[in-house]
Amino acid sequence: MRSFASSGVAVDWVLLLKAAIMGMVEGLTEFLPISSTGHLILAGSLLDFADAKAKVFDIAIQTGAILAVIIVYWQRLRDTVLQLPNSPAARRFVANVAIGFLPAVVLGLLFGKAIKAHLFNAPVVASTFILGGVIILWAERRPPSSVRLAEVDQMGAWDALKVGLVQCLAMIPGTSRSGATIIGGMLLGLSRKAATDFSFFLAIPTLIGAGVYSLYKERAHLAASDAPLFGVGLVVSFIFAWLCVRWLLRYIATHTFTPFAWYRIAFGGVVLLTYFTGWVAWAD
Length: 284
Fold this sequence. Notes:
Blueprint: E1 2-3, E2 10-11, H1 13-29, H2 36-47, H3 52-60, H4 62-72, H5 74-83, H6 88-119, H7 122-139, H8 157-167, H9 177-187, H10 192-217, H11 227-251, H12 258-277
Helix pairs in contact: 1-2, 1-11, 4-10, 4-11, 5-6, 6-8, 6-10, 7-9, 7-12, 8-9, 9-10
């Protein structure tokens, strides 16, 4: 433990380093189809950063990642807001995001607590990593003729609702919110670009809502002294998410998600191996 001489405020530098590592993990994994929650659970186990406060931290720092999406898509978001009074297309876009967001609200309130109590553990995360990888491989084998919608603006309310329902699968840790919405969108007829764009737009209300709700619900676990911890996590997650989103948008123009599928399968296999052999003491 060291302190700032000028303020006399004690700073746990080891804890701040853990916050920075967790922020980096969040930023790099939130928008890739590899499950940020799964990586955070496993990273938290390895860093001994998995108590009640850490669980709130994991959700709260998603706000930093979402800020990166807002900045990357700022022109589109600003134009949509300005055009709302006069543009049916802008109103349809906002309505689609709201419709896609609704299932996560309803099912999250109904089942979120039970899922956190029983499914946030290494075997579940690893198994869903592997299953998700297999599904991505299947999705990438679809014929080009299966694409119905090339752009987000072509989506209707029914398309948005179906993607929103698929997003709820990400309540199971290791599934990946972005993976569920992107790959689910592709299987529902969206192009890779349209599915990725809608996944980013849908993430804005979903993750901000989850962060605000979690902070309010778990406010008893928090104190003013936690500000540096959460601040470091938010800033680091923003930086790495901004880099990751910009890279991903360039990547999908010429590549498939197949490498992420094989990563998920390999990573899930390693976690299962280390868990059942006892090589790594994963937290339950």
